[in-house]
Design goal:
Structural class: alpha+beta
Strand order of the largest sheet: 2-7-6-5-4
Distance between the termini: 16 Å
Largest sheet: 5 strands, antiparallel
Helix content: 10-25%
InterPro entries: DUF4333 (IPR025637)
Biased composition (Low complexity): 28-51
Radius of gyration: 14 Å
Region (Disordered): 20-51
Domain DUF4333: 52-118
Order of helices and strands: EEEHEEEE
Number of strands: 7
Strand content: 25-35%
Number of helices: 1
Number of domains: 1
């Protein structure tokens, strides 16, 4: 089963983190053809700081969106807190993990950045 969700917003700022959406329920990673995936996009903001030009994901938004996809699109029960890493650059091909409390266990999902516009894919809950 594959599901795709696209969320657009002004969630990217230089020096901030991004959030995403995820799929759940399997030990299969995003790169596996059978993995359910979800794609999220955030529009870049024109705001930048003089010392930092790299765009990063909005971690609060990513945490929220990952949880929403797990609950609403993949019907994962018992999803609690989601914790994605801060200050992750918007860079095509980058991969990182978000940690999720689900059914009173700590699990993880793999985030794969799809493009430099902020779209990312969330792998199945591991």
């Amino acid at each position: 089963m594959t599901a795709t969700v696209v969320i657009a917003g002004l969630g990217l700022l230089a020096g901030c983190s991004e959030r995403g959406t995820d799929s759940g329920g399997s030990d299969t990673a995003v790169s596996t053809p059978t993995a359910a995936t979800s794609t999220v996009a955030s529009a870049p903001s024109p705001v930048s700081t003089p010392t930092e030009t790299a765009r990063v994901f909005d971690v609060e938004r990513m945490n929220h969106d990952v949880r929403a996809v797990l609950v609403e699109h993949y019907q994962v029960d018992g999803v609690g807190d989601v914790s994605c890493p801060r200050n992750r650059a918007v860079e095509a091909g980058a991969r990182f993990a978000c940690y999720v409390e689900a059914a009173e266990q700590q699990r993880k999902v793999t985030i794969t950045v799809q493009d430099n516009d902020g779209r990312y894919e969330v792998g199945k809950l591991q």
